């Protein structure tokens, strides 16, 4: 996330009003609900995790146990169990 200088984008009267509440501090202005993006929308993270989880489930069905899967994918045994349980549905 990059910062935008308020003096470059806000009219002076709005800037003065904001300064009454927050003077010289950082202020986060959230996105409008209509502009929000879901997690992983800008990257391939969602696809990569889905592929990884699919591979874990396939390896489990081929006979790898949870301990071996945990070592292979660098995840806790609980995480492997959760992925298998979710993939099983």
From TrEMBL:
It comes from the Bacteria. Residues 13-87 form the Mor transcription activator domain. InterPro entries: c-mor_Regulatory_Protein, Homeodomain-like_sf, Mor_transcription_activator, YraL-like. Pfam families: Mor (PF08765). NCBIfam families: CD3324_fam. This is Mor transcription activator domain protein. It comes from Clostridium cellulovorans (strain ATCC 35296 / DSM 3052 / OCM 3 / 743B).
